[in-house]
Amino acid sequence: MNVNLGIGIPSLCVNFIDPNLDIFLQSENGILGLGPYPPEDEIDADLISAGKQTVSVLKGGTFLSSSDTFGMIRGSHLDLTVLGGMEVS
Questions:
Q1: Nearest to 29 by CA among 45, 48, 55, 3
Q2: Domain residue extents for the chain
């Protein structure tokens, strides 16, 4: 399943997903395969989500252009989107 995480509170979902589930999380800035927040000693300041939060990438994850990630959204290539209250109109 491919899931887009919105900015803010939705980005916290990554810390509550069972690692045995086959889910690829997408960040709109071009990451498919977001992992949980990294431990303090593994932080890479260049690896951030669309909300400017430090993230990790799971094995098999990939980096895309933001136009490709929005193409996935607009082209209905995602199974689910988790949005925050300020992202819904």
A1: 48
A2: 2-84
**pLDDT per residue over 48-73, tens digit each?**
988 888 999 988 999 999 899 889 98
Quick check: 88 pLDDT over 80? no
Q: Is 15 exposed, middle or buried (0-12, 13-18, 19+ CB in 10 A)?
A: exposed
Contact 3, 81 (CB under 8 A): yes
**Architecture in CATH of 2-84:** 3-Layer(aba) Sandwich (3.40)
Query: Catalytic positions, please?
Result: 28
Report the pLDDT value the prediction gives residue 49, as an integer from 0 to 100.
Answer: 87
Sign of CA dihedral 26, 13, 3, 70: negative
Cα 14 to Cα 58, 60, 67, 78: the distances in Å are 11, 16, 23, 16
